[in-house]
Amino acid sequence: RTGKPLSEALLGSSDIPKALWTAPIACVVVSTVETSRSEDEEGEAPMDDSTLVVKYANRAALETVGLRSDEWERFIATMDQTGNLKVQENPVLIDLPGDMKGDKKYVGTYEKKIMREQGGDGDNDVTIVKAHRWSIEKGVLINGKFETKEMGVAYAWDEWVLGNGIVCRPGGIREEVVDIGALEEAVQEQAAFIRDLKANQGFGNKDSEVLDAVDELIKRKKVLEESQIKK
Fold first, then answer.
1. pLDDT digits (tens, 9 = 90+) for 205-224
2. Which of 82, 145, 217, 220 lies 20 to 30 Å from 34 when distance is taken between CA atoms?
3. CA 72, CA 58: separation in Å to the nearest integer?
């Protein structure tokens, strides 16, 4: 919808499905499927439920949810010969909207916690950040009229954050989340400490106390600058 490829790895590829499977960007397609359940134990009438299903996921998406490439069946829904959803063994579930409300069909800066650790301390919660989200539609003929029908919603991201503050990228890349504000505060505190050494404690620019403090200030500024570039 933007005219730009999801990944440079897809440019010029003669086999787009294969290139997308191995691309360094996670991609999933989800949709909401209406399912029926029979009478419950209290004899209530059957009800229609909606279930979020994953129709497609590439290798990076499987990595995001903690699965290997050969474990796709725990994540991607499949249908039996009658068109019903197959029961997945030990499925991995995610929380993503299966449709897009309103007229907006593309979002370029989407963020959402898609997995929550059950019974833990949240260290393994998964939040996708700076993701793309768009509606997948196709034209259908209904009662002689050509209409557009939403088939699902696609999501793509190349970065996700674990609950313990680790930034992850496809290919096993892991980095700690950097608190820019804390680094800026550390620089300001060190600069104030140097001013105090000279203004209130009587040290001069050539005294070792000031020289050591200036060296520390330079180190903190360098860390801040490098972190801002990465961000």
1. 999 999 999 999 999 999 88
2. 145
3. 9
